[in-house]
Design a protein that fits this description.
The protein is mainly α. The chain has one domain. It is 78% helix and 0% strand. Helix 6 runs parallel beside helix 8. The two termini are 38 Å apart.
């Protein structure tokens, strides 16, 4: 805590401005897009001399790997959406459900695991959800169990692979483990989280899933462009996993894979490429860049010191108690300011505290699973909520919280126990 009056003024002003921007990003008053608040906040930090321009530019440049990863994964996801891959997957699930809601719930959940693992959690929340909803609406059954399945699995499966969530790149901040090491660390916690989330969500939705449903949809078939899109995505995912296994830079690899997949699908049809590029939500890039600046400012006024001290303290406790406190601390904090900025703080805190790899993993569990508590926890959940509103479906923050309180704490706890078991 600074003692000079001018330093105190900068300290207080920075905290107030950053917290206000986070609130505006999460609640979007007057429907002003999230990126506008983040960019405006970053600019105000420089204008009011709360942060030097050079430091702000350094913070923006630090996110280059994440920007490239987001661009590549958004391009892959848009190719899948544009050519009906998600609609085909949803209709395929309906075909194999054969009138059973429970079977359909299992299939939708399983598809969510695959989409999240290979295309990131945002693809499940934003693109798979509308496709599932379109199928469910024709059966005249409650869509809520399936919609919550998409939202919760988007976070629960977001650390199956390094490429499953942009936050994974943020938390490890250029030190992303190679694929083999990643699987060694996270396969059991991921399996535990996916299984526990399924059991709790199924138990919560069991009454809605009990009645039989009408078979309202004929199985969709992929046209040639759709098949090319599916193949292109699988090839791109294979290339990304190979890059990760060789400890290469995942961000540039994702960007190149997205471009090559687009060229493979489009061939000589320029309109296909233009359509894919036009429909991508490019505003996510400036949003993340603004968050990098805001978090860098917070690190300079004590957020890093607080987080590093908490990690050092937890490291002195018994393993399960220490890992649980770290995971739940970062998980709950993610619901206050969103998991992406909290991931940036966590990465810097682990480095400052010289935390172990298992402590680093506990931070990642909190950042990935904590957001299943509330609608403000992750960008994927916020985008999921927006996608539902476009479809005239309202899920209140209180409704999501009721489900989240049931699902998130046991899931995060069992994932932490699995992590401790793996490193015993």
């Amino acid at each position: 805590m600074p003692t000079h009056p001018a330093q105190i003024a900068v300290w207080i002003s920075t905290w107030i401005l950053c917290i206000l921007v986070f609130v505006l990003i999460l609640w979007r008053p007057r429907r002003v897009p999230e990126y506008a608040w983040a960019v405006t906040g970053a600019i105000l930090l420089v204008v009011f001399r709360l942060m030097p321009l050079g430091e702000a530019w350094t913070a923006v440049r630090a996110g280059a790997n994440v920007y490239l990863f987001l661009a590549g994964m958004m391009l892959l996801a848009e190719l899948a959406r544009q050519h009906g891959v998600f609609d085909w997957l949803a209709a395929l699930a309906m075909e194999h459900a054969r009138g059973s809601q429970t079977r359909l719930f299992v299939l939708v959940y399983g598809i969510g695991i695959v989409v999240t693992s290979l295309l990131s959690n945002d693809a499940t929340a934003v693109l798979l959800t509308p496709a599932v909803l379109a199928v469910i609406r024709r059966t005249k059954t409650s869509p809520l169990p399936y919609l919550f399945a998409c939202a919760l699995i988007a976070n629960a499966a977001s650390f199956v692979l390094p490429i499953s969530n942009p936050a994974n790149l943020v938390v490890f901040d250029g030190q992303l483990p190679a694929l083999g090491e990643w699987l060694r660390i996270f396969w059991l916690p991921a399996a535990a989280a996916i299984g526990m989330t399924f059991l709790l969500l199924w138990w919560h939705s069991r009454k809605d899933l009990r009645p039989p449903m009408q078979d309202g949809v004929r199985p969709a078939s992929l046209n040639p462009m759709g098949r090319r899109a599916g193949l292109g995505i699988l090839l791109a995912a294979g290339a990304l996993l190979t890059t990760s296994g060789l400890e290469g830079p995942v961000g540039p690899a994702a960007f190149v894979a997205g471009i090559l997949a687009m060229l493979f699908v489009a061939g000589k049809q320029g309109r296909v490429m233009i359509a894919a590029l036009r429909h991508i939500s490019w505003s996510v890039i400036p949003l993340v860049a603004g968050l990098f600046v805001l978090v860098a400012a917070l690190r300079g006024v004590g957020a890093l010191a607080i987080s590093a001290y908490a990690l050092k303290t937890a490291a002195t406790w018994p393993p399960i108690a220490g890992l649980s406190s770290v995971a739940f601390g970062f998980g709950i904090a993610a619901n206050a300011i969103n998991n992406l900025p909290m991931g940036l703080i966590g990465a810097a805190a682990v480095q400052a505290a010289r935390g172990t790899r298992v402590m680093h993993a506990a931070v990642l569990l909190g950042i990935n699973l904590g957001p299943n508590l509330s609608v403000t926890g992750s960008l994927a959940t916020i985008l999921w909520l927006i996608a539902l509103r476009r479809e005239k479906i309202e899920v209140s923050a209180w409704h999501f919280l009721r489900v989240g309180v049931l699902v998130m704490p046991p899931t995060l706890l069992i994932a932490v126990l699995a992590l401790a078991l793996m490193h015993h």
